[in-house]
Automatic annotation (TrEMBL):
SMART domains: GAF (SM00065), PAS (SM00091). NCBIfam families: sensory_box (TIGR00229). Residues 8-78 form the PAS domain. This is PAS domain S-box-containing protein. Keywords: Plasmid, Transcription, Transcription regulation. It comes from the Archaea. Gene3D superfamilies: 3.30.450.40, PAS domain, Winged helix-like DNA-binding domain superfamily/Winged helix DNA-binding domain. InterPro entries: BAT_GAF/HTH-assoc, GAF, GAF-like_dom_sf, HTH_bacterioopsin, PAS, PAS-like_dom_sf, WH-like_DNA-bd_sf. It comes from Natronorubrum daqingense. Pfam families: BAT (PF15915), GAF_2 (PF13185), HTH_10 (PF04967), PAS_9 (PF13426).
């Protein structure tokens, strides 16, 4: 049969010539006796060149030896040790490439000679499909364990390199903040092609268009695409598939026409699995965030409930406290006793010595205050958190003391004592700043938004208590101190009226109103009244002004001032402004305070407003700051707040002068009430005041 001459009408030859599989007939010594034309399409050999050669020319050495052993065993014993219907061996092409084969063998006898016939089928594509299906199934199982977008993308890219027979694979995810696709995971070959880890240089290129349109894109020759610049990508063919709203999957090749239908189908299944897994991870992440938020909110509510309980107890204690020291001591002790707080201290600002002075503490300080020194320099107090509280008058939080390098001495001392988080809370009443409550906790991230808000309210409550104590001391003190200051930098105060207008300024009186604003009565001799009113209208602290009377020697003005002014703060703290007048470039300011009050706190308050302030005189008096206690208490008990305000404003506005400096209409406008209402309040207050003088009550 080594002669290939045949009758074309022979059925065997007709079938063999049309077959896609290689049909080979072997002698018992494995010599090829016949080969059909398909041998060339599978192995690369022309049939004539292999006839007379050993079958080992078409098989790997090991598989050829195995096949010969099967033949010998069969010829000797008649036993077939394997299924000859589907033998899996490895073929070797003329190019040297190894291919998987499925061989179906049979034997026959002709002219008393035994031969073996075999159908050799290239199962590369079948095996590739099997590998793809196996890998896709494995990926689907692996993706169930993925816990993040990064993990899903990495597993998908790794599988794609096996499934698609392409090593240039990348996944880009949509970044909503940036508004563009950002590389998430890519194969190592991408690094060799691009320094930017992106296969397309332009942000709005082929991958972006596929993402926006949500359409699969297969480009077999990128150089022929009119919308793709020549230097935009190193790829020559590409397949891009959107992964829903998450991003795009990119598979590329440096040669054209690299993607057949089977590859595209496999990629579709691959991306479908990735999309499902990304959705699952997204849902699980959302659920985790919701659970974490719920847990955080529950913990925050528990902490706020706890701190609210502490504040309720503190409020009761503050109403019964016997003075400033007891107020601050109660606050620090009770706060430090509430977990997870460990230590609390209160510090006031001493402008004279430029430092924060600790005045009370509670809890396990373990020498903390002795170890730190909060002294000011050009950059502040050297304690970043306290600096911010003093500057902003708002709570400042450091929820993880460990996170920042502990260069500041206070931070090192805090870490050594087990403090993990801290907050500075301003103690303020209206616009009077008393100091800072510094609170330290043993846990990180304790001071969340709700807790900070509650502690801020506590700071205001403490400020109210301190202010109430100051007023009480001013009301009950039998002795007072008069402090005289020289001011040479007027800042934004009305004392600047004298300097800015080349005139003079002299305070007549201050009236504190119920809304916290202050009505100031003052005289000024120059310049013209209209010019003074225009100057006043440009001052941010002045709400409104009017000329009360235009006397020959001076003019009396009335201005309503913001509650944040120095004048309001002095009244809020229980002091009396006895004198305030300008003379050239300087001004003299005299205030009367209770003897129990700390003069340094008033000095610090004036320093905040006037920068250049000097205490030039101090005198002590054996009399209270205010009128005799019994008379004033009785009067205030009889008058309503509105009646007292009307009576006091009328007096200082010159309503009782003759001739009157303010009529009833103008007085009503000043008070912001109707004229009949003002008259009724004024008559009632006059009757009550006079009854105290003349009635036997």
């Amino acid at each position: 049969m080594t002669d290939r001459s045949f009758d074309p009408n022979t059925p065997f030859e007709a079938v063999a010539n049309c077959a896609r599989d290689a049909i080979i007939i072997l002698s018992t010594d494995s010599t090829i006796q016949y080969a059909n034309p398909a041998v060339e399409s599978i192995f690369g050999y022309e049939p004539e060149t292999v006839i007379g050669e050993s079958v080992s020319v078409l098989l790997s050495d090991a598989d050829a030896e195995t096949l010969l052993e099967w033949f010998d065993q069969y010829l000797t014993t008649g036993d077939r040790s394997t299924d000859w219907g589907n033998i899996r061996l490895h073929g070797v092409c003329r190019s040297g490439e190894t291919i998987p084969l499925s061989i179906s063998l049979s034997d026959f006898t002709r002219d008393e000679t035994t031969y073996f016939s075999g159908i050799f089928r290239d199962v590369s594509e079948q095996q590739r499909r099997e590998t793809r299906l196996t890998e896709l199934n494995r990926l689907a199982q692996d993706l169930t364990d993925a816990e993040s977008f990064q993990d899903v993308c990495q597993r998908t890219v790794d599988a794609a390199q096996t499934i698609l027979d392409h090593s240039i694979v990348s996944i880009e995810l949509y970044d909503a903040d940036e508004g563009q696709l950002v590389p998430c995971t890519w194969a190592s070959d991408v690094d060799e092609l691009s320094d930017e880890e992106q296969l397309f240089a332009a942000e709005r290129s082929v991958p972006w268009n596929a993402f926006v349109t949500q359409e699969r894109t297969l480009l077999s020759d990128l150089e022929s695409e009119p919308d793709v610049e020549h230097d935009e990508t190193p790829l020559r063919s590409v397949y891009i598939q959107p992964i829903g709203s998450y991003g795009v999957f990119i598979a590329g090749a440096t040669e054209t026409d690299a993607f057949d239908e089977a590859t595209v189908d496999s990629a579709n299944i691959l991306v479908g699995n990735a999309y499902s897994s990304l959705e699952r991870v997204d849902r699980e992440e959302s659920l985790r965030e919701q659970r974490d938020q719920l847990a955080d909110k529950t913990a925050s509510i528990d902490r706020v409930r706890r701190i609210n309980t502490v504040i309720r107890d503190l409020t009761k204690a503050l109403t019964q406290a016997g003075g400033r020291e007891e107020i601050l001591s109660e606050v620090c002790t009770r706060l430090a006793a509430s977990e997870p707080y460990q230590f609390a201290w209160f510090g006031s600002v001493d402008q004279t010595d430029a430092e924060i002075v600790p005045q009370a503490s509670g809890g396990g300080g373990n020498g903390f205050l002795e170890e730190i020194s909060v002294t000011a320099d050009d950059d502040g107090f050297g304690h970043g958190l306290i600096d911010r509280v003093v500057d902003t008058r708002s709570p400042q939080v450091q929820n993880s003391i460990y996170q920042d390098p502990p260069f500041e001495p206070w931070r090192q001392a805090a870490i050594e004592r087990g403090y993990r988080a801290t907050i500075g809370v301003p103690v303020v009443y209206q616009d009077t700043f008393y100091g800072v409550i510094n609170l330290y906790a043993s846990e990180e991230y304790v001071f969340e938004q709700m807790e900070v808000a509650v502690l801020e309210e506590l700071g205001e409550t403490i400020g109210y208590a301190l202010n109430a104590d100051e007023r009480k001391q001013a009301f009950t003190s039998d002795q007072s101190v008069e402090l005289a200051f020289e001011v040479t930098n007027f800042g934004e105060s009305l004392l600047g009226l004298g300097g800015d207008s080349d005139g003079s300024f002299e305070l007549e009186n201050l009236v504190e109103r119920r809304d916290g604003t202050v009505t100031m009565f003052f005289t000024a001799d120059e310049p013209e009244a209209d010019d003074i009113l225009e100057w006043l209208s440009k001052q941010s602290q002045v709400l409104d002004s009017r000329l009360v009377t235009d006397r020959t020697d001076d003019r009396l003005f009335e201005s309503r001032l913001e509650r944040s002014t120095i004048w309001a703060q002095l009244l809020q703290r229980g002091s009396i402004v006895c004198e305030a007048q300008t003379s050239g470039d300087s001004a003299r300011l005299v205030i009367r305070i209770p003897r129990s009050a700390d003069p340094r706190s008033y000095d610090a308050l004036l320093e905040e407003w006037f920068d250049d302030v000097e205490l030039v005189a101090r005198r002590e008096f054996d009399e209270p700051v205010m009128a005799p206690e019994e008379f004033e208490a009785e009067l205030q008990d009889r008058l309503t707040e509105r009646q007292e305000e009307v009576l006091e404003t009328a007096y200082y506005a010159g309503y009782f002068e003759w001739p009157r400096e303010t009529n009833s209409k103008e007085l009503a406008e000043t008070l912001g009430i109707a004229q009949p209402t003002m008259s009724r309040h004024l008559r009632s207050s006059e009757q009550k005041f006079l009854s105290m003088l003349y009635d036997d009550t």
